[in-house]
Amino acid sequence: MRKKIVAGNWKMNLLQHEANELVNKLVSQEVSSEVIRIVFPPYLYISELLNSTSNLAIGAQNFYPKDFGAYTGEVSISQLKDLGVKYVLVGHSERRMYFNESNTFLKEKVDSALANDIHVIFCCGEPLEIRDQNKHELFVINQLEESLFHLSAEQLKNVTIAYEPIWAIGTGRTASSQQAEEMHACIRKSIIETYNQEVGDSISILYGGSCNPSNAKELFACPNVDGGLIGGASLKAEDFYAISTSF
Ligand code: PGA
């Protein structure tokens, strides 16, 4: 069965005391146990926050796909596993854009996370010029083919996909529910064609890109939208709560 998920990507925001305050508020919120809530704080805060909560999972925004070694400044997937991290983001458009993470490198990251029993939230999504050329479906399916579709069906079940059109991230311009549903249905169809119906029916596909309390209900009501990956609005406890209760 597909899970309902609301994930908060804090990006490079918040000081430690603000992070603690936000998590304290989130932990005290009452949200249906059917909804999995995950937040992705900066690395520095992960180990402290991990111990604070059972109704809120703490994930990592990034990692380097090697276990140990001479990679100055990096944090490895096995170090995250050792801390008890259960979720990682892979393929966020900011990592693709600012840190040149290619589909091939992302494939390596996916493999390394799954080999360490860490669930992957894999982000995909097209830039505006690709949408304007009406090539967005091809573009996104190519991202999945190059980084995900080498996985076995069993492995893919430990992946959640987040469709995040780049033109909607941090811009206040959300995809319409129709645009989101079309792409989510296209992604699910490609999973069914590559694997089978059962796999397609079991993978959660989240929408991300200026999702907020006023548009979450409409987006989450789409048959193929199983929740959201939330940036800006995840930094406010009330907004994250409103989104988490929008199913
Ligand atoms: P946004 O970010 O909600 O601020 O648009 C979404 C994301 O980058 O995951």
Topology:
Elements: E1 4-9, H1 16-28, E2 35-40, H2 43-50, E3 57-58, H3 77-83, E4 87-90, H4 93-98, H5 103-115, E5 119-124, H6 128-132, H7 136-147, H8 153-156, E6 159-163, H9 177-194, H10 197-202, E7 205-208, H11 216-220, E8 227-230, H12 237-244
Parallel strand pairs: 1-2, 1-8, 2-3, 4-5, 5-6, 6-7, 7-8
Q: What does this protein structure show overall?
A:
The chain is α/β, with parallel strands linked by helices and 247 residues long. It has one domain: Aldolase class I (TIM Barrel). Helices cover 43% and strands 15% of the residues. An eight-stranded parallel sheet has the order 3-2-1-8-7-6-5-4. Helix 7 packs across helix 9 (177-194). The longest helix is centred in the C-terminal third of the chain and has 18 residues, at 177-194. The model has no long low-confidence stretch (mean pLDDT 96). Bound molecules: 2-phosphoglycolic acid. 2-phosphoglycolic acid (PGA) binds next to strand 8.
